[in-house]
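Limitations

Structures in this collection are predictions, not experimental determinations, and the ligand pose is part of the prediction. Treat each record accordingly. The example that follows, with magnesium ion as the small molecule, is included so readers can see exactly what is and is not provided: the inputs are given verbatim, and the output is the predicted complex.
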Amino acid sequence: MTETEKPLLEINKLHTWFPIQRGIMSRTVGHVKAVDDVTLKVFHGETLGLVGESGCGKTTLGRTIVGLEKATSGSVTFDGHDLLAMSERDFRPFRKRLQMIFQDPFSSLNPRMTVQEIITEGLAQFSMLEGSPAEAAARLLGEVGLDDQYIHRYPHEFSGGQRQRLSVARAISVQPQFIVCDEAVSALDVSVQAQVVNLLMELRDRYELSLLFISHDLSVVRHISDRIAVMYLGRIVEYGQSDTIIEAPHHPYTQALISAVPVPGEPKKQRVVLQGDVPSPSAPPPGCHFHTRCPFARDECRGQAPVLANAPGTSDGRHLVACHFADNLHKTDTTN
Ligand SMILES: Nc1ncnc2c1ncn2[C@@H]1O[C@H](COP(=O)(O)OP(=O)(O)O)[C@@H](O)[C@H]1O
Ligand code: SF4
Ligand SMILES: [Mg+2]
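Predicted complex:
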């Protein structure tokens, strides 16, 4: 990626709020601010990792990008086209170009359909089938490292890792440019996780795919991602090259996430244990959303929300952090 390169996906001030309705008149009494002012870019052929604890809004962000959730405001621009301003009809070709892989293939793969039906469904829908469905299914199984003899089997006949390979085959069948992988390996054993992550990396490189790789687990995200965005309660709190985020995190939340991940060959870090759970996105703490759990919070943090700005010592937008005191805090030594 270069600074002059145009991003494939550009998200600007995106909000996805869910109304909270009460009473027989379904009066709206508030909103769950699942995505609350997110600005991000994803470049051609790159993997952006999106990390944060459960409930931070990662899935909602991914679903909004691919059109499965309706945004409240903001824009999502894909290859120069404003997706949120489009009619359903104009959006149709983008359904093919943007795909999503989910955590739980049991619920995303129809148990009554054969492998062939599942992975050629999109090809038929978009009139992309060349040759017979059986030939297309066999070729796609080969792409994801599965035996082409499996085309007449059903999802329950496969292991968790194999089912996730089927999800990958289905996603790549329609030749997308962008795939949201939402906790795509989180339910798998560690060794199987690595195999599926390696498969995604191979396919990304072969087809110059861009990935938004969502996980609550930073150790998985760091392995696959070129850049990492850290999300907390609907907002991005830190964003930059993977190595920078891992080696020089500036936000106390990122520091806490990283302290929980052992790095081979590096001294063990002192674990920063965060107190309490993520607060409710229907009533986020005022000021810095993180102040209720931040070991460094001061009065200013409770009154005023920090903006996402260049990290101290940088000016090129490649490393952004949202903390009033990032300047001092990045010197905090978490090495024990
Ligand atoms: N359809 C929905 N209606 C209401 N609230 C929702 C809906 N989907 C998600 N949420 C809420 O939005 C917040 C963010 O959820 P989610 O995007 O699933 O986070 P994550 O993927 O980081 O765990 C949570 O509080 C969740 O309960
Ligand atoms: S702004 Fe304050 S509360 Fe928020 S992360 Fe920085 S120090 Fe902590
Ligand atoms: Mg999720």
